[in-house]
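Regression check, heme C case 266:
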Amino acid sequence: MRRCLHTYKLLILLALLPFTSYAVDMEEIAEGGRIYDKWWVEMELSKPTTTHSAYPKAGKQTGANTSRCKECHGWDYRGREGAYSKGSHFTGIKGIQAYSGGSENKVFEILKDKNHQYDKVMLDGALKTVAKFVVHGQIDMAKYIDAKSKKVNGNARKGKTLFRDNCADCHNKDGRAFNLAHDDGVTEYIGTIANKNPWETLHKVRNGHPGAEMTMSKMHSGGGMGMGMGMGRSWRVGDEMPAMLTELNEQQQVDLLTYLQALPKK
Ligand code: HEC
Ligand code: HEC
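Current build output:
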């Protein structure tokens, strides 16, 4: 009888094992997503001062931003085939979708090749983390976001609940707790960003936003006070915006994004 019980316990343990390692991996994939977004902020490294050597001469961007993976390969990971197929972010460079489900090692090598030369600015550990994102963290955003209208096809009603439970405690019920714009004189809220660039917003919902930390002034402007009446999670100064990759499934992330587009734009 006793032996039976032990076997039973062992079986439960073995059954749970894949889930625990899965959860840990998701954290790392999301971190890789934030490196993809803006590696020097995520890794606390110095901001590049020059335009990336692989950035095409005909491109319209200059300086540090040209070193962000997203600048050449897009928020939708589709490069010239996706949202960056035209406009001020066009580079003509292909996407990274071919490596979704591919070899992490191969991506790691690509990041050190002549085009990228990321081994000059980041340690191997960071490169392996972003490679994990490339291989395991991509989704096919074209399934959910209409390229022309930018409208998202999820369920806004379900998204509303998810917003209240996961976001409103920091951003308030209307997404306007604090200004998210990076330029002086500009005001942007969650509703503004979700409508302007749903691909970027989905990437950030899944992976988090590099350096998004609650500060004293954000708390004072009404954020982080549990005003959203969510699950009653209380946030403190220094807390970071969580990555939904570890909390919600893909359809829920899309439902959430659909609701974000219904929030006030100004
Ligand atoms: C300044 C532009 C630029 C930036 C920034 C950039 N890449 Fe690239 N990347 C390229 C070019 C150019 C290629 C080669 C494309 C080709 O072969 O047509 C490439 C190829 C790739 C490929 C192989 C795609 C394929 O299907 O062959 C992967 C994966 C990749 N990059 C990942 C990344 C990651 C991850 C980052 C950020 C850490 C990054 N890249 C940043 C320009 C860039
Ligand atoms: C712990 C508090 C916290 C939570 C919870 C939180 N955020 Fe944030 N969020 C922040 C902070 C801080 C910033 C950064 C503002 C800045 O750049 O100064 C931010 C930034 C953003 C941005 C703007 C990114 C950009 O491009 O500048 C979006 C969009 C966003 N959050 C959406 C969400 C959504 C959706 C949720 C729920 C899934 C969420 N946030 C949950 C604190 C939080």
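Comparison notes: Residues 170 and 224 are 4 Å apart (CA to CA). The two ends are 67 Å apart (CA to CA). No diff flagged against the previous build.
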